[in-house]
Write a structure and sequence with these properties.
The complex is a heterodimer of chains A (354) and B (270).
Chain A lengths: L16 H9 L5 E6 L2 H17 L8 E3 L4 H6 L2 H14 L5 E6 L1 H5 L4 H5 L7 E4 L9 H13 L12 E5 L8 H14 L3 E6 L5 H4 L7 E4 L5 H11 L2 E3 L5 H16 L4 H17 L7 E5 L2 H4 L3 H13 L3 E2 L4 E4 L7 H16 L2
Parallel strand pairs in A: 1-2, 1-3, 3-4, 5-6, 5-7, 7-8, 9-10, 9-11
Chain B lengths: L1 E7 L5 H14 L4 E6 L18 H5 L14 E2 L5 E4 L10 H14 L7 E6 L19 E6 L3 H18 L7 E8 L6 H11 L4 E5 L3 H8 L4 H4 L4 H15 L11 H10 L2
Parallel strand pairs in B: 1-5, 1-6, 2-4, 2-5, 6-7, 7-8
Antiparallel strand pairs in B: 3-4
Helix pairs in contact in B: 1-8, 4-9
The chains are: A alpha/beta (354), B alpha/beta (270).
Chain lengths: 354, 270
Amino acid sequence: MNSKNLHLNSRRFSGCTLTGALSVTTQVKDGITVIHGPEGCVHHNLSLFHALSVDNGSLEMPVLSCSGMDQERIIFGGEDALENSIRDAISSDSGLKSVFVLSTCVADTIGDDAGSVCSKDYDLPVTFIPTSGFLGGVFQNGFENALKNLALQCSENVSGKKMTVNIVGEKNLEFEVESNYSELNRILELLGLSVNIRHVRGCKTGDLYSVGDAALNILRDHSVLKVGEYLMERYGTGYVEGFPIGFSGTLEFIRKLGDMFAMDISGALGFEHDLQLKIIDEFDDICGSSVCFIYPEQLTIDDASVRSVIDELCGLFNLKIRKDGIPVPFPFPGPVGSTGTKRLLHRWRRVLNG
Amino acid sequence: MKQIALYGKGGIGKSTTSANLSAALTDKGLDILQIGCDPKRDSTRMLLNGRWIPTVLDTIRNRDISDIKAEEVVFRGYGNVRCVEAGGPEPGVGCAGRGIIATFQLLEKLGALHGDVIVYDVLGDVVCGGFAMPMRDGYAQEVYLVTSGEFMSLYAANNIAKAVARLSRRANNKCLLGGVICNSANINGEEELVREFAERINSHMICHIPREKIVHISEVNKKTVIEYAPESEQAAVYRVLADKIYGNQNLGTPSPLEMDELEELALKFA
């Protein structure tokens, strides 16, 4: 039997460095990403990103260009084609503020030095992000490299820290990315904090220059821990390792931020606790239900925060996990904040009372 | 149609041997096509009296392949030998191996791969799948290893034998080892060494080509030995080589040596 056909085959989850980096660079709204590779790589990613943005209610197309590696460029080298593509991209739109260059497996297999092409003189900043398709690793490597390289736009000499936070490593291809951000922002406002930049989502080139200004980085989750470490090393900015997950996770998150900013959080904590009690009250009709979880095992096996959400909600609503229980969606990724948990409970209720 | 490929270490004399082989074969009244599969593009130069012909890859660059005619890449040389040079990218950029594949695709499309004998003169070593192309997909059916008695030359020949052996495991393989050509570097015991090497890899030495001044003199006169000095003993050697290769039925799958076996063999004749 061919194991590649199995749903559990982990190779299905690895992805491509190019897509990982693109999920970051395409969020710089006055930038263009030039892919040094064949047109197929651009088409594939453009289709994927467009489909996902439509799914999230947006008709926005990612701004991509391509050096058009074909047989001739593979044989004779594609560095000239890349340089021409960068210059064409710069001259094509006067509103552009930056260019990001990503490489593909084909370009790196023949040894094209995209980094040195990017180091030439251009009218706009051109940032090379090592990707190299499969040669550079998997989706996560491309994602991390892009987050780190875009942070390099900011000078290391940060003048002073504001009472603000950066949101780092939002998963731009995630379904509830904006809802999660709104929830996080609501919690920050309870504490009197504001967002410096979202690194990197829906920002402009100029925003990237201020990534070092925030007093704290809030990482999307532990998968971007290396980026958090990198930013701490470069700018001396501490970090919180993940968004608040579940009810108790949200209260814990507030306490953590209170400690870090040495502020009185009693008001915020009280408000949030009351909100959670109201939500629990609102869903008392699901109490005592028998459930079983539908989940992709490989994705959740090590996610302790998600496990704790299950334990918490099963305890609060006296849910019984049984093989013959009503199938409900496994909370992955974990519900962000109290309102994220409320949305999850809505989904469960639809199934349980349906 | 007989399709043969000459492989060996860079600078060992593959192009000289190939050109003289093609010249000797055309003198027998055979229709010959020689294809240089090396970015150096000098395989057929002696057949063309020193002329540098446009390479296939230079020709297809910036051109629509469908517009290219066979006469733009195939040129007539000594005795009407049809000469082709694959060419390649500038040193240090691109992928020459892919260039060989593109060359073969174009020549096939142009219907240029015909004749009584096609001689493929291939870059020093099988550095990637592109340079193994002449051995694959039914192109060259016989590979000849050109080597001297120098250790690195034998090492390269042994590596090519490994490539032939690997390809022979494929179900549709048509390529076998035809033999080993000893192109002398004037080393003591060289002929015996190369003969034993050939036998140890389950093949045979098909010809010993002595190192003679006339080869160099012919080359500076931009001719093959067959053309410049047809009465010379060296020309006679190339004719023997041509006869042996044209009539060779002793083809087989090589069994390449391990490194320590190769070193032991070299030590024996040192």
